[in-house]
Amino acid sequence: IVGLSALLTTPMPVMRTVISALEEFGVRETVKVMVGGAPLTDEYAREIGADAYASDAALASERARELVSAV
Known about the structure:
The radius of gyration is 11 Å and the shape is flat.
């Protein structure tokens, strides 16, 4: 699992870049990407191709378990 977090909107486009880089290097299918942080939404996570979104650390832990158990 790659976890990406942003506290401001300025680094959010880099999340899409990271996901694109994983695709470019041919490892995207073997890596789950989870995003979160104050300015993010579930909609944005889907838009950039993330596998999961979590609004806080407790939910991130749940989502990580779900991602791992789905493999």
